[in-house]
Amino acid sequence: MSETRWNRSSNERSDNSEIQHRRVVIENSHGEKLVGVLHDTGSTETVVICHGFRSSKDRIPMPTIANFFEKAMISSFRFDFAGNGESQGSFEYGGSVVLLYAAKYKDVQTVVNISGRFFLERGIEMRLGKDYLKRIKENGFIDVRNRKGKFEYRVTEESLMDRSGGATFNNKGAAAPNSF
Is Amino-acid biosynthesis found in the keyword set (predicted)? Predict the structure, then answer.
């Protein structure tokens, strides 16, 4: 597998005769390097494959899904969100960003979102505790720890809003989504 620095002005490849797997490194707006794998079949369509919560581009089923599209001669791109897998940065609670981008800008035709949340009220409260919104308002963040007490990730009000698609929350923490 070769490494490619993604150049937004030119996304063509020189050899259309075979499928290529290319490691792609993209620098985000925070200066962090995000790492992905482009399964380039030479097609004009590219499917973006997003891993689930605290996962990575290399965990099942991401490569399996990419291979499925490859067999159909459709290019795909699977990547690690910041703070996951090979990507730099710290993990945040805003993993729905690709879906929000695709819904708003319409230049991404197909997104495969693994383990995406659709009923946020119960999941957030279960993971962060009943008074999570109050604690975020008071402290600016919540540090989430595993059962052994080891720090796993930080939830800020901004990352919570990113994850909820800009939803507003009532005093019980229930999300009321805004439209795009």
Answer: no
